[in-house]
């Protein structure tokens, strides 16, 4: 992991080391193993809770340095709220809260995985451990020194005390694969664009072969031969060549149609000739968060040996202004044969998706396609940073994505599609234009554009993750600029509905 965290498990009988973290309910009640661990402190916790008005409300914490009676540097009591109401995502959150209370300089911590009514079951303790892992992530590979007071322990060990060590380790194994996928996605989003350009991104996907993913990289010559002129038009102003990476995991029955995930991978987006303002442009290194999610998802599914056939396809380009860059008013012929009038070169992601989605549908004939893209600022205006916008031509797929989002805490909100919006992207000179020409309903007209390239009536959903893919809301399990959003959501979609 990014901060060299070592995660282990022990039985309740093992003496805690380092920072001790325990859980209580909203009545300040503890389980038997926790009461035994706290017995030497007498009524210290109750007195401190009264002084601090701490009641055990979910997500709150009471911190005591050098607690009397314990030969430990710190005691943290984390509120779990009403224990009976806790869900999978709540245990994940509690793990994140617990890890957040471990000081950066602390080399060791012990977390007692127990609620007042009972010890956490193996699955719940594994969710807790996954929350610890996700919260521990930090992208610091380019830091060469720290300021005074920002020092961190070089290696950290967190031991989770559980009632069933073997069962928890078994339950954690698939979650570790998913966490690795989230971390991979976060790393990709956080990388600077001078390091992670299209060819380099494609090269990194090849590392997925280690977990059994078959990877094929389409270079410039192959893309030209396929007629991906919409995608190539976006990248033609860059000194970096465009690429498409095709990743395949065959964990299902031979011959079964795969499920497909497509990602927008604009490794840096200046806006092209329709150049963006300078303020905040540095964030556009994250305009490949959709492709990062698909890459992380493919790792997660393969590493946990998902019983399903999956294809992940990502379009990798860099959108730069140059004498060779495409211009507003240009017309390109997409792989589908449809002609596209370029109204705004900063509406580039949908051009990438147009070719990649058509290619995926025609080549693989999947059961469904889900694309992810940091596509529009308009979706942030509509939904903020809480939900991703979802557009779909299939009610069942949309319902399943909604339920997966609720279960994982990566929610989506369905937005409308309709002929009234579709008319706005009709072009006077070509089959379609790449924007609606107005700021109103911009996320919808972008989705309408993409829908025109969904071949053969394939069930499809488009997730606009502009508000969740990077620089998004900080949570108890994510303090990173690049969130890795979508890996857990889509893994859950596959697990609940499409595995054999």
Annotate the secondary structure layout.
Elements: E1 5-11, E2 19-24, H1 32-38, H2 44-52, E3 61-65, E4 74-79, H3 88-100, E5 108-112, H4 122-136, E6 156-162, H5 165-190, H6 198-205, E7 214-218, H7 220-226, H8 229-235, E8 243-250, E9 259-269, H9 289-303, E10 309-319, E11 331-333, E12 339-341, H10 349-364, E13 369-373, H11 377-383, E14 388-392, H12 395-408, E15 412-414, H13 419-422, E16 432-433, H14 442-451, E17 460-464, H15 487-497
Parallel strand pairs: 1-6, 2-4, 2-5, 5-6, 9-10, 9-13, 12-16, 13-17, 14-15
Antiparallel strand pairs: 3-4, 7-8, 8-10, 11-12, 14-17
Helix pairs in contact: 3-4, 4-5, 5-9, 8-10, 9-15, 10-14, 12-15
Task: Name the descriptors.
elongated, six-stranded mixed β-sheet, 2 domains, 500 residues, alpha/beta
* Structural class assignment: alpha/beta
Contiguous uncertain segments of 5+ residues: none
Beta-strand percentage? 15-25%
So what's the overall shape?
elongated
Mean pLDDT: 96
By CATH, the topology of the largest domain is Aminopeptidase
Q: What report would you give on this structure?
A:
- By secondary structure, the chain is α/β, with parallel strands linked by helices.
- The protein folds into two domains: 5-163, Leucine Aminopeptidase, subunit E, domain 1 (3-Layer(aba) Sandwich), CATH 3.40.220; 177-497, Aminopeptidase (3-Layer(aba) Sandwich).
- The protein is built from 15 helices and 17 strands.
- It has helices spanning 32-38, 44-52, 88-100, 122-136, 165-190, 198-205, 220-226, 229-235, 289-303, 349-364, 377-383, 395-408, 419-422, 442-451, 487-497, and strands spanning 5-11, 19-24, 61-65, 74-79, 108-112, 156-162, 214-218, 243-250, 259-269, 309-319, 331-333, 339-341, 369-373, 388-392, 412-414, 432-433, 460-464.
- The strands form three sheets. The protein has an eight-stranded mixed β-sheet with strand order 7-8-10-9-13-17-14-15, sandwiched between helices. Strands 1-6-5-2-4-3 form a six-stranded mixed β-sheet, with helices on both faces.
- Helix 9 crosses helix 15.
- The longest helix has 26 residues, at 165-190.
- The two termini are 31 Å apart.
- The model has no long low-confidence stretch (mean pLDDT 96).
């Amino acid at each position: 992991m990014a901060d060299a965290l070592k995660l282990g498990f022990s039985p309740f009988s093992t003496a805690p080391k380092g920072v001790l973290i325990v859980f209580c309910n909203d009545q300040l009640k503890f389980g038997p193993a926790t009461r035994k661990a706290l017995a030497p402190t007498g009524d210290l916790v109750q007195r401190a809770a009264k002084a601090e008005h701490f009641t055990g409300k979910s997500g709150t914490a009471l911190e005591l340095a050098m607690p009397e009676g314990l030969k430990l540097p710190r005691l943290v009591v984390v509120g779990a709220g009403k224990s009976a109401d806790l869900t999978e995502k709540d245990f994940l959150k509690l793990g994140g809260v617990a890890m957040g209370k471990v000081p950066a300089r602390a080399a060791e911590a012990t977390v007692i995985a127990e609620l007042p009514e009972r010890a956490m079951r193996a699955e719940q303790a594994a969710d807790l451990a996954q929350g610890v892992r996700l919260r521990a992530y930090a992208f610091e590979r380019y830091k060469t020194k720290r300021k005074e007071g920002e020092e961190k322990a070089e290696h950290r060990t967190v031991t989770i005390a559980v009632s069933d060590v073997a069962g928890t380790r078994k339950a954690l194994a698939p979650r570790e694969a998913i966490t690795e996928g989230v971390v991979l996605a976060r790393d990709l989003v956080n990388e600077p664009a001078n390091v992670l350009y299209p060819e380099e991104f494609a090269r990194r996907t090849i590392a997925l072969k280690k977990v059994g993913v078959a990877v094929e990289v389409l270079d410039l010559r192959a893309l030209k031969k396929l007629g991906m002129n919409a995608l190539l038009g976006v990248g033609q102003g860059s000194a970096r060549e465009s690429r498409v990476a095709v990743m395949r995991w065959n964990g299902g029955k031979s011959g079964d149609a795969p499920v497909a995930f497509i990602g927008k991978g604009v490794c840096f987006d200046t806006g092209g000739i329709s150049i963006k303002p300078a303020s905040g442009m540095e964030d556009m290194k994250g305009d490949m968060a959709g492709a990062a999610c698909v890459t992380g998802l493919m790792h997660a599914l393969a590493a946990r040996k998902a019983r399903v056939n999956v294809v992940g396809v990502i379009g990798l380009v860099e959108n730069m202004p140059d004498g060779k860059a495409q211009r507003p008013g240009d017309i390109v012929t997409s792989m589908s044969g449809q002609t596209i009038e370029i109204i705004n070169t900063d509406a580039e992601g949908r051009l990438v998706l147009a070719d990649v989605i058509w290619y995926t549908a025609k080549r693989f004939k999947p059961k469904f396609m889900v694309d992810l893209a940091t596509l529009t600022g308009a979706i942030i205006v509509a939904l903020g940073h809480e939900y991703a916008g979802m557009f779909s031509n299939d009610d069942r797929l949309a319902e399943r994505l909604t339920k997966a989002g609720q279960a994982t805490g990566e929610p989506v909100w369905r937005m409308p599609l309709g002929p009234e919006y579709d008319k706005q992207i009709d072009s006077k000179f070509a089959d379609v234009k790449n924007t609606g020409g107005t700021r109103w309903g911009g996320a919808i007209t972008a989705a309408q554009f993409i829908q025109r390239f969904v071949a053969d009536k394939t069930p499809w959903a488009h997730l606009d993750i502009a508000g969740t893919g990077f620089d998004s809301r900080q949570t108890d399990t994510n303090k990173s600029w690049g969130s890795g959003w979508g890996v857990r959501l889509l893994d859950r979609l596959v697990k609940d509905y499409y595995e054999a």
